[in-house]
Specification:
alpha+beta, Nucleotidyltransferase, domain 5, 3 helices, 23% helix
């Protein structure tokens, strides 16, 4: 398998706004978008559908002759089980046990890394990306 350079889709799920950017491996933004965060969603489905919709819009806008998007990194508020990719609890989103990684993997067909939004923002390797994700991708 040969590795190729790829773009990364970074998503920040906030209490009022979901922001996303397609980034190069050196964290330069290529595309960006935002949508309002749905309210009153204990299971997280409406929020995750909004993330998937915004992500699809950005993925469709990626130039077909450039590098592909190889992974998605999502920063979410509250208690996060990073190993399982689950939003365990978020007071401001009102969710419990939201299957963030699974939902987004199924919706988008990309590998997904989920992290607490503050921890992701504090990562030295993610100056503008919400979470650290691979900057090279293989033929999955």
């Amino acid at each position: 398998m040969s590795a190729e350079r790829c773009l990364v889709l970074g998503v920040d799920v906030g209490g009022s706004t979901i922001k996303a950017e397609v980034l190069t491996e050196d964290h330069r933004p290529v595309l960006a978008g935002r949508v309002p965060t749905p309210c009153g969603d204990p299971g997280g489905t409406a929020v995750l559908d909004a993330v998937a919709g915004l992500s699809r819009d950005l993925l469709r806008a990626v130039p077909p002759d450039g590098p592909p998007v190889g992974a998605l990194g999502a920063g979410v508020p509250g208690i996060v089980d990073r190993d399982r990719g689950v939003g365990v609890f978020s007071a401001n989103l009102g969710w419990r046990d939201a299957p963030v990684a699974e939902h987004l993997r199924r919706a988008l067909g990309l590998p997904v890394v989920v992290s607490h939004d503050v921890a992701a923002a504090a990562s030295p390797s993610s100056a503008s990306a919400p979470v650290e994700v691979p900057t090279t991708c293989c033929s999955w």
